[in-house]
Amino acid sequence: MEKPNIAIIGAGMTGVVCARNLKDAGYEPIIFEKSRGIGGRMATRRTSEGLQFDHGAQYITAKNKRFQSFIDTAISAGCATHWKIEEKSTFVGRPSMNSLLGLAVEDLSIQFNTEILRVQKSKHGWMLSSETQNQFSDIVVLALPAPQIINLIGEHNSLSQELTNVEMKPCLTLMAAFPSNKGAPFITRRKPDDDLAWIAQDSAKPYRPREMTCWVAQAGDDWSMKYLEYDKDEIARILTPMLCDRLRVSSSELLYSSAHRWRYSRVTKPLGKSFLSDISATLYVGGDWTVSARVEGAWESGTAISKAIVEQM
Ligand SMILES: Cc1cc2nc3c(=O)[nH]c(=O)nc-3n(C[C@H](O)[C@H](O)[C@H](O)COP(=O)(O)OP(=O)(O)OC[C@H]3O[C@@H](n4cnc5c(N)ncnc54)[C@H](O)[C@@H]3O)c2cc1C
Question: How far is the CA of 294 from the centre of ligand 1 (A)?
């Protein structure tokens, strides 16, 4: 029997691990990714000043032994490393968060800068429409935040009902840099009740540039909701003095600051199972939002989808 065409939308952890497993099982999946790189919310911002910030996922933890083994393989390949936060053992991509997927994406077909705008069933299979082309595929995997999936398949699709029950929260994130000789009261700080719920000295992670001290600060849920639609420069302008206050440094020391808006940052009401598929078992949807708000949840979802596709053949 001829192998089906498989299209995967999204080159974050979910999409990449799904594609990797399918490729290893003898399929030739193609990933469509709207941005110019891999990693999705495992994101790193590089600036023209030579600064680097992991402004999405901060670190990775592994409970599942198979996910730990995925991380161990990435560490052996030089794509990830340990980062000890106080007494907690965590992992980060090396030298940036999305490097974690560096080994997994090798020899995968990925079409970057391609935003899929619509996914519809047609007599030639699933039609994936972007601004410039229509692609057809026998099987489609949507590895995106749940609300973005509804936008692609439409609210009348049979899967959309369950997807609307999933809730995801936004997160406004500040990236800021100070001269390297500045002392700091902490390396990481989590304070859910503070407007800056998480602050981390990103440049303290291993294999990061150290010329300046780079910080990533995440606004809490309420603050992020309140300022969600503000202009990003305005968000940075408001968050910067708040960060200076927490770090006890003067704003006059600031060398760089900018903000990022994560509209769908983390799930607060997950689906409760690792993916959904339609009745024809040709449309699969998944992501971290299925089981947990973590990279490990995305890995679990992508793994489960690839297993289901291979088993149905
Ligand atoms: C601020 C923040 C902090 C976090 N901190 C942590 C942490 O410390 N530890 C942890 O484990 N997790 C953390 N997470 C969560 C973690 O980043 C996610 O769980 C994980 O990266 C999700 O992977 P994914 O593949 O499911 O989705 P994503 O990473 O969102 O990947 C989806 C991909 O699809 C692409 N895409 C979207 N729409 C389209 C389209 N229409 N066409 C083509 N491509 C499209 C996107 O560009 C993206 O690359 C954090 C997330 C955020 C935002």
Answer: 9
* pLDDT above 90 coverage of the chain, percent: 95
Helix (H, G, I), strand (E, B) or coil at 304: helix
CA separation for the pair 53, 216 (Å, rounded):
7
Rounded CA gap, 301 and 15, in Å? 9
Q: Which of 263, 295, 290, 256 is nearest to 80 (CA)?
A: 295
Taking the CA of residue 13 as reference, the ligand 1 atom at the shortest distance is 25
Residue nearest to atom 5 of ligand 1 (CA): 57
Place of tokens 């592994």: 62
Ligand 1 pocket, mutate which of 30, 41, 275 (most atoms under 8 A from CB) = 41
pLDDT, tens only, 137-161? 999 999 999 999 999 999 999 999 9
The total number of residues shown for the chain amounts to 313
Domain annotation for the chain: domains and CATH numbers:
6-38+105-166+270-312 (3.50.50.60), 167-268 (3.90.660.10)
45 lines ligand 1 (CB under 6 A): no
CA of 56 to the centre of ligand 1 (A): 8
pLDDT, position 241: 97
149 neighbors 285 (Cβ within 8 angstroms):
yes
Dihedrals φ, ψ of 215, to 5°?
A: -120, 145
Residue 190: per-residue pLDDT: 96
- How far is the C-alpha of 235 from the C-alpha of 180, rounded, in Å? 24
Pocket test for ligand 1, best of 131, 268, 295 (most atoms within 8 A of CB): 295
Average pLDDT for 26-36:
98
